[in-house]
Structures are given as structure tokens and as C-alpha cells.
Specification:
- With 581 residues, the protein is α/β, with parallel strands linked by helices.
- It is built from 18 helices and 23 strands.
- Strands 16, 17, 18, 19, 20, 21, 22 and 23 form an 8-stranded antiparallel sheet that branches. Strands 1-5-4-2-3-6 form a 6-stranded mixed sheet, with helices on both faces. It has a 5-stranded mixed sheet with strand order 8-7-9-10-11, with helices on both faces.
- Strand 7, helix 10 and strand 8 form a beta-alpha-beta unit.
- Helix 4 crosses helix 7.
- It starts with a helix and ends with a helix.
Length: 581
């Protein structure tokens, strides 16, 4: 009975898509779904509306209200246009930047969005071809725009596309604007409410001029240009994994002075099908297979990769045995901030008002590095919009010098307000040059950090619970952890519980203090006497609950890594047992 009711609802919804304002191709596909005795496609496409959330849109491409297509993208753009026209009612010339990545339909969706903005009297700066997300953020600030969008699904599988909305500071939208835009998008009832007929006089195509400006600004964050001159032959292997990084990252490395850059030819081909990888995610070893193969052939110093919209960076280096190993997101962030702090101090570039930012689930070793070097550090929620918020709050008062998160995103500059693989790859090359100048590798630098600041092993455990019953289970798990937090983890007493939903931190004696965060969030953290940290949160986009673990240890010497890692791995298993996962 329940299924019949669902089919009825989906049928009624789908029939509205047979109205004349929908194009012939869309109508034909809707008819096919309606006439098909198997209603799976119909239900999947229409059982709900693709939700415009705080991060924008993301979904599988296809026909239907629950898919990425010109109508769902159109509704998002019309809603954003209405909100901009309300928000900046007295302003003569409201303007936006529109960017897109390499994915199938990204350019089409971007051009349709440009038409809709212009049909609503909004000036559009449209990139001439695919470009990295960070450059779109830069362009909003550089061109003095009120908003911007980029069509990308980051490193999702090829079936997906997405739409991210940004505000006038170049950061993804935060309260109150996120809710304001969502309300306007939800008021769009059908294709008839969308103004598709563009005004070409209001659309300006941008490209090389913004590229050059951006690349020059990125070059300005180089800390030690002299070390690059000495190590200009550093052997770099780079792959854009078929994405936007190919437009600017090789160029940026050249501008910084690196003359021995080898790009993975098969992956320097723009493609939304990502034909050479299972998933275009630089966090996965599989996506770096071709890059590591090339690195072995030429005996490279470093492998670097950017995801399709070039905001995340993945890397691999040789370990002490000469084997190629992946550097994880926590280690990446730690290495970047260690280098920035250590070398800004060495070069006399510190003025005393500098600060860094990390997310609450990112390694606490960064706090140790900051404290030892008297640098202020802020903790914020997961997502780069929160790092951007911290930069905005300190604008004109304190100097941002870097920030990142465990999910392979880093931002070394304040003229962009989202994670940036263009500057990260350039700075990574400088770090490797600095290491090589001392006869060391990137791996050696990481080992030195562990010896000086303590060892730390981070791992994420995803517990997947699909469907409605899964969502209920995840909710129950969070409620249970809240009501009965663990007393011990892996044999060590829990000495502090942070609940970001109530914004209270409670110690073992039951004393509660307030947590200073901009809003509540459904995250729990447990800290133990031996330095273990476990963060628990339900995923906002997938049917899973995530456990971020950080296990502390000591490393007496750079060669002690294997034993420290083995001990931490054993401890992690005990912690999992304590958590019941």
C-alpha cells in the first residue's frame, strides 16, 4: 500500500513535467518513466526534490525533481537571483561570477545559469572555460561581486554534478544568507517561474586577465624563493585527474621557478567521464596509480594531485626505504602549517599578529606546533566556510597565514576564501625544495615533526546505515552516546566530553563549561587521559556516521615510526571496541 501511494505521488509530480515549459527531450524521458511497468526510475527521479542545502546542490544528473538538470539548476539560480535582488535592492549593478569544472553538463549548466542571472538584471562574469573553484572565489573579491556560483561535484563519481553558492567575501554562504537563499529557491514551483531568456549585454566572458592576477597573487605567498632557485630541478609529478587543475597548476609551478614538472599525460585530458580512474578522488591510492607509475620511471621527488575542481590536494612521497607512500590529509595540513610557521619565523616575516585555523576533527599536533611557536590557533567546524568566517572576523586586525582540514583541503592565503589546490601544490613544491636543500625528503620532514611534537595516528571509521531505518539507527547512536558517553576508550579514562549540540564541555568530575562556537552542531568529542581524541558526527550528505580517531604516541627517533605506528594501530582497535564499532 505504501509503495502504491509513493508511485501515485511520483506520477502526479512527473506529469507536471509534461507541461509545455519543459523541453521535448525532458518530456520524452518523463513519458518513458511513466509508461515503464518498472517504476524504479520514476520513484528515484521524483520521490523528493533535490534539496538546495547550506552547501548548494549535489546529485546524480538526469531528468526529474531529484536530479541535477537545467530545471533544478535553473530553480537554484532563479532563487539566488531573487535573493540578491532583495538583499541589494538599492544597488545599481549587482554582479556575480559563474565558474564550472570538467564534469559532463557543467558548462551547459553554467551558461544556463548565466542567462538566468542576466534575465534578472544581474551582471555576470562567466569564465571562458573550466577553472578551479579557488579562482572563482578569488574573482568574486577581485571583481567586487556580490555572489558567485561554481558548477562542480568536487571528487564525487562521474554520475554526479553540483552547484555551490558563494557570497561577496568569496566564501561559501553562511547564516543568515544560506537560509535566505534556500527560502527563495523553495518558492520556485515550476519551470514557468524561471527566467531562461538571457540578456547577452549583461554577460561578460573572463579568462586570462583573471588567471594572471590570481597566479601572481598565489606567487606572492612563496616564503623562500631563494631555495627554489637552488632546487629548480626538483622532479615533480603532477596530475589533475582530468580536471580543472590542468588550467593553472603547471603554470603556477613554472611561475614559482620549478623547471622539472612532469604531468601525467593520460590525465591531462579534460573529461567528465574520468576514464583512467575508478573515482577522481586524490585521497585514494587508486587515483594516483598512473602518477606513482610515472614517478617510479623518472625517480621523482614528489607526486601531487588535485581533484576535479582543484580545491583539494593529494600527495605521495618516498619513505625511508624508498617506497612510495601516500601522505594523509592530517599529515598534509600539519606539514604545511609547520613549514609556514617555522620558515616565516626563520625569514623574519612574523609581525606578532598571525593566526592559523584548523577544524575540530583535524589533528591536535597542529595546536602543539602553534603553541610552541606562540602562534594563535582557532578551531572551527568542518567545512572551509568556517575557516573563511574566521578570516573575515579577523580582517584588518590579525594576519591569517594558513588553515586546513583532514579532508585534504588547505588554504595558505587570504585573497581566496575556499580551499585551494593551486597555491597548495605550489607551496608543497617549495617545501620539498627546502627539504632537498638540506638533503632531506618530505617524509624526513614529517618524521622530524613527529620526533619534536609527538606521534599521532589519525583514522576515520565510517559506519554506513542505508535507508530510513539506517537514518533512525544513526540518530539513536548519537542519542545514546549523548546520554551515556563512554567512561573509557582503549583502557584510558575519558576526561572531557564536548557536545557541540548543547555547546557544553563536561569534565570527568561533571563540571560543565561553555564552548565558544557560532552555532550548535551535531558533533560529539571524547578526550582521554592518554591524549586520544574521538569525534563522532553523522554525515550531512551520505547515510553514515563518522568516527574520527586520533591516537597519540611518542617517537624517540625518526627511525621509530614503524613501532609507534604499530602501537597506535593496536590502540585504535581497542578504542573501536570501547565504542562498539
Amino acid at each position: 500500500m505504501e509503495n502504491e501511494e509513493l508511485i501515485k505521488q511520483c506520477t502526479e509530480k512527473a506529469q507536471k513535467w509534461l507541461a509545455p515549459e519543459y523541453d521535448a527531450e525532458t518530456q520524452a524521458e518523463v513519458k518513458r518513466m511513466l509508461e515503464n511497468p518498472d517504476k524504479t526510475d520514476l520513484i528515484e527521479a521524483f520521490y523528493k526534490d533535490l534539496e538546495f542545502g547550506t552547501g548548494g546542490l549535489r546529485g546524480i544528473m538526469g531528468v526529474g525533481s531529484n536530479r541535477m538538470n537545467i530545471y533544478t539548476v535553473g530553480a537554484a539560480t532563479q532563487g539566488l537571483s531573487n535573493y540578491l535582488n532583495k538583499c541589494f535592492a538599492g544597488k545599481d549593478n549587482i554582479s556575480v561570477v559563474v565558474g564550472y569544472d570538467c564534469r559532463n553538463n557543467s558548462q551547459k549548466f553554467a551558461e544556463i545559469s548565466a542567462n538566468i542571472f542576466s534575465a534578472n538584471g544581474i551582471k555576470v562574469y562567466l569564465f571562458e572555460d573550466m577553472r578551479p573553484t579557488p579562482e572563482m572565489s578569488f574573482a568574486i573579491r577581485r571583481l567586487g561581486c556580490q555572489s558567485g556560483i561554481i558548477l562542480t561535484a568536487s571528487h564525487n563519481p562521474k554520475e554526479y554534478n553540483g552547484y555551490k553558492a558563494y557570497w561577496d567575501d568569496g566564501a561559501q554562504v553562511l547564516a543568515p544568507h544560506d537560509k535566505g537563499i534556500i527560502d527563495e529557491v523553495n518558492k520556485i514551483n515550476s519551470a514557468a517561474d524561471i527566467k531562461f531568456e538571457g540578456d547577452k549585454d549583461l554577460i561578460q566572458v573572463i579568462g586570462k586577465e583573471v588567471d594572471d592576477d590570481y597566479l601572481n597573487q598565489v606567487h606572492s605567498i612563496s616564503i623562500d624563493p631563494e631555495v627554489i632557485k637552488r632546487q629548480k630541478d626538483l622532479k615533480i609529478v603532477y596530475t589533475p585527474i582530468h580536471g580543472t587543475g590542468m588550467m593553472l597548476i603547471p603554470q603556477s609551478l613554472k611561475l614559482w621557478g620549478f623547471e622539472n614538472v612532469h604531468c601525467v599525460a593520460e590525465q591531462m585530458v579534460k573529461s567528465g567521464d574520468f576514464p583512467t580512474v575508478v573515482s577522481p578522488n586524490p585521497e585514494n591510492a587508486e587515483a594516483l596509480t598512473l602518477a606513482i607509475k610515472l614517478a617510479k620511471e623518472i625517480d621523482a621527488d614528489i607526486v601531487m594531485a588535485s581533484d576535479p575542481d582543484a580545491d583539494r590536494v593529494g600527495m605521495a612521497c618516498k619513505d625511508s626505504k624508498g617506497e612510495w607512500v601516500l601522505v594523509n590529509g592530517n599529515q598534509t595540513c600539519l606539514i604545511f602549517l609547520y613549514y609556514i610557521i617555522k620558515n616565516r619565523i626563520a625569514m623574519g616575516k612574523m609581525k606578532g599578529n598571525e593566526f592559523i585555523v584548523k577544524t575540530i576533527v583535524t589533528t591536535e599536533l597542529i595546536k602543539k606546533v602553534a603553541d610552541k611557536n606562540n602562534i594563535e590557533m582557532y578551531d572551527c567546524y568542518t567545512g572551509f566556510k568556517w575557516i573563511a568566517r574566521q578570516i573575515r572576523l579577523n580582517e584588518g586586525i590579525k594576519q591569517y597565514i594558513g588553515g586546513g582540514e583532514e579532508s585534504y583541503g588547505f588554504l595558505a592565503e587570504d585573497f581566496v576564501r575556499d580551499k585551494d589546490a593551486v597555491s597548495a601544490c605550489s607551496l608543497l613544491a617549495e617545501i620539498c625544495a627546502w627539504a632537498k636543500d638540506q638533503g632531506k625528503t618530505l617524509y624526513d620532514i614529517l618524521m622530524e615533526i613527529y620526533v619534536e611534537y609527538g606521534f599521532s595516528k589519525e583514522l576515520t571509521v565510517n559506519v554506513v546505515k542505508p535507508g530510513k531505518s539506517g537514518a533512525d539507527e544513526i540518530k539513536a547512536m548519537m542519542e545514546n552516546f549523548r546520554a551515556c558517553p563512554p567512561k573509557e576508550l582503549g583502557g584510558s579514562q575519558v576526561v572531557l566530553v564536548k557536545d557541540y549540540k548543547t555547546l557544553k564541555a563536561t569534565d570527568a568530575a561533571g563540571n560543565a563549561t561553555d564552548i565558544d562556537m557560532p552555532e550548535p552542531s551535531n558533533v560529539l568529542q571524547f578526550f582521554t587521559a592518554d591524549g586520544t581524541k574521538v569525534s563522532v558526527r553523522p554525515s550531512g550528505t551520505e547515510p553514515k556516521i563518522k568516527f574520527y580517531m586520533e591516537i597519540k604516541g611518542e617517537m624517540g627517533c625518526p627511525k621509530c615510526y614503524a613501532s609507534a605506528n604499530a602501537t597506535a594501530t593496536e590502540k585504535a582497535e581497542a578504542v573501536k571496541k570501547s565504542l562498539g564499532i
